[in-house]
Amino acid sequence: MSRLVVVVDPAVGVGPKELAGLWLADEEASALGVAGVEAGRDSFVPGLVEMVVVPLVVNVASSLLYDLVRRLIRRGEQESGGQRTELELVEQRTAAGDRIIVVRLVQERL
Q1: Count of CB atoms within 10 A of residue 46's CB?
Q2: pTM for this model (two decimals)
Q3: 45-93 tens-digit pLDDT
Q4: Concatenated DSSP letters for the chain?
Q5: Residue 39: how many CB atoms within 10 A of its CB?
């Protein structure tokens, strides 16, 4: 079974525990798998402490996952009173079949 691993840059303002809670509370998201938080051991992202991990029950299109993750982060921003930010989502697949989505703020280009 492949896993979805969501890594959220701390600058986004929605942490892994909050995102996992939002995932579990969302009917569409929780139907895809149960979210949990794991330590970021041997991390490919420097400074990563925790990440959201979801064992995926079915194969899901990338666009659906992106929209779902964006929607949950927006909900987290609203609930915490944070400001709405422009997000960039980047996906990588591992040799084991895991799908890693990194969520970060869009940086202004000079």
Answers
A1: 6
A2: 0.83
A3: 555 667 888 888 777 888 889 999 999 999 998 888 777 778 999 999 9
A4: --EEEEEE-GGGS--HHHHHHHHHH-HHHHHH---EEEE-TT-SSTT--EEEEEE-SS---HHHHHHHHHHHHHHHHHHHTPPP--EEEEEEE-TTS-EEEEEEEPPPP-
A5: 10
